[in-house]
Write a structure and sequence with these properties.
Elements (H helix, E strand, L loop, with lengths): L2 E5 L6 E5 L4 E5 L2 H7 L4 E7 L3 E5 L3 E6 L5 E6 L6 E6 L5 H6 L15 H17 L2 E5 L10 E6 L13 E2 L7
This protein binds zinc ion (2 copies).
Protein name: CENP-V/GFA domain-containing protein
InterPro entries: CENP-V/GFA (IPR006913), Mss4-like_sf (IPR011057)
Pfam family, one: GFA
C-alpha cells in the first residue's frame, strides 16, 4: 500500500495518505453540500495513522453531527480547503475535546481524582476497540481524478438530477 500525496488549493498544506482502496466514496449529505459548495463530496475513511501532514499547520472547525457527537474539520487557514474530518467516537468525546491533553496524562495520572482516571481509561479503551478513523477528501490527492466511484452514501439527500454511478446506501452501509 503506497502513499498518495495531496495538497490544498494554495499549497500551504501538504500531506501523504495510505488509501485502503483506489476509489472515492460519494457523500450526498447536506453538511457536505454546505461545506463544499457542491452536489456531493468525494471521500474515503482511513485509520488516523494512515495520514501524515507533511507541510503546514491546519485550523479546526467543530460542529455536531447527526449523532450529536462533535466532528472536527481540519482545513487550510489560508485557502480554507477541507483536508479531513474526524468524529470522536468514544463516550468521553466531548470531554476529550474540552481537554486536549487528556490522553497525555500518563505521568500525571496519580495526581488526578479517581473518576477522572477512570474516564481516561474509558476513552483509551473505546479508541482501541473502535479504532480511530478519519474521513479524508480523496479528490484533493494528486491521483484523485483517476480514482473510480466506489460507493455512494446518504443517497436519501441526493439532488434529483444527480445520477447514480455506484452502489448507493440511503444513509450508511450496515455495520
Ligand atoms: Zn491552502
Ligand atoms: Zn457528507
Amino acid at each position: 500500500m503506497s502513499a498518495d500525496h495531496g495538497k490544498c488549493h494554495c499549497g500551504q498544506i501538504e500531506w501523504q495518505v495510505k488509501l485502503e482502496d483506489r476509489a472515492h466514496i460519494l457523500c450526498h449529505c447536506d453538511t457536505c453540500k454546505k461545506l463544499g459548495g457542491g452536489a456531493y463530496s468525494l471521500n474515503q475513511i482511513v485509520p488516523k495513522e494512515n495520514l501524515q501532514i507533511t507541510k503546514g499547520k491546519l485550523n479546526t472547525y467543530t460542529y455536531h453531527g447527526d449523532s450529536g457527537k462533535p466532528v472536527n474539520c481540519y482545513y487550510c487557514p489560508n485557502c480554507t480547503t477541507h483536508i479531513y474530518h474526524h468524529q470522536n467516537s468514544g463516550p468521553g468525546a466531548s470531554w476529550e475535546l474540552a481537554c486536549p491533553f487528556a490522553l497525555e496524562v500518563g505521568s500525571l495520572a496519580p495526581k488526578l481524582s479517581r473518576p477522572v482516571q477512570k474516564f481516561i481509561i474509558l476513552i483509551r479503551w473505546s479508541k482501541t476497540v473502535m479504532g480511530d478513523k478519519i474521513v479524508i477528501r480523496t479528490i484533493l490527492l494528486d491521483q484523485g481524478k483517476s480514482l473510480k466511484a466506489g460507493a455512494e452514501i446518504f443517497g436519501k439527500d441526493r439532488l434529483s438530477w444527480v445520477k447514480e454511478v455506484a452502489q448507493t446506501f440511503e444513509v450508511l452501509p450496515p455495520s
